[in-house]
Specification:
This protein is mostly helical. It has helices at 2-15, 20-26, 33-50, 53-101, 106-116, 121-129, 133-138, 145-160, 164-212, 217-223, 225-254. The protein has a domain at 86-179: Receptor-associated Protein. Helix 3 packs antiparallel against helix 4 (53-101), helix 4 (53-101) runs parallel beside helix 8 (145-160) and helix 4 runs antiparallel to helix 9. It is elongated and about 80 Å long.
């Protein structure tokens, strides 16, 4: 009966209309919680259908580890993309400053930059048509802090009539300071991340040590209910530790 209930819940989550399209329209990030819960319920229902509680724990543990692995890969890619956007935006500021120092008008300089960085196409179009370039820069998605600073500098230059190059120079100095601070934070967080990953791998060395002493820890972990529960708890603690280190590192990098 429990297996049937879990299977029914999994089918309901599979068929129910998800909110991904609504969240996309609102600019929110879809977390994919329904899919994760769907996989866990499917694993539990299959294990219960087999009639072995040990298999239930094993399937749930394996599904959880698989989902956590996907989460780590997605988190690493998002982090790399975020830093790449920051670096690209900083290069845009430096290139724009070079164009302005060469005597090019700001609108023409923005059009030239759009040839190398396609995400500047809205701002280049606004500059070509005499529109609001600052608003176009703020509308770029995904945005980055250097682009928002550039939009503020462009807005100030248009409203006050001051040269854009002067405001842009101050923005570049601020961005360079922020990038240097980011590199220092990344260097200081490297050992902590390496330690967390090493500690997460220690249970594997423990299994190898037990095998070398003549015991069979894998048989206990995979064939007994108590061992499967210990494996599930240990895996959950390892995943929680890695997630906590990533959370602290992200907060420090974004501070």
């Amino acid at each position: 009966m429990i297996a049937a209930a879990c299977a029914a819940a999994a089918v309901w989550l599979l068929l129910v209309p998800r909110r991904a399209h609504v969240e996309a329209r609102l600019g929110l990030q879809h977390r994919g919680g329904n899919r994760r819960l769907l996989l866990v319920l499917a694993a539990v229902s299959v294990g219960l259908a087999l009639g072995e509680p040990t298999r239930v724990v094993q399937l749930a543990t394996g599904t959880g580890l698989l989902l956590f692995g996907f989460r780590q890969v997605r988190h690493a890619r998002a982090r790399s993309a975020r830093w790449r956007r920051l670096d690209d935006s900083a290069e845009v500021l430096e290139s724009l400053a070079a164009e302005l120092s060469a005597g090019a008008p700001s609108q023409r300089a923005m059009e030239r930059l759009a040839d190398d960085w396609t995400f500047l196409a809205p701002a280049a179009g606004a500059a070509r048509l005499g529109g609001d370039v600052a608003a176009a820069l703020r509308s770029i998605t995904p945005s980055a802090q250097p682009l928002r600073d550039l939009a503020a500098a462009w807005d100030v230059a248009e409203r006050s009539g001051a040269p854009l190059a002067d405001a842009l120079a101050r923005v570049i100095r601020s961005v360079d300071s922020a990038r240097e601070a980011r590199r220092e934070i990344q260097a200081s967080l490297g050992p902590a991340r390496a330690t967390a990953h090493t500690l997460a791998l220690l249970p594997l060395f423990g299994v190898g040590l037990g095998s070398s002493m003549g015991y069979d820890p894998l048989q206990i972990l995979t064939e007994t209910l108590l061992g499967a529960c210990c494996l599930a708890v240990g895996a959950a603690l390892c995943c929680a530790g890695l997630a906590w280190v990533d959370l602290l590192a992200d907060r420090a990098e974004r501070a």
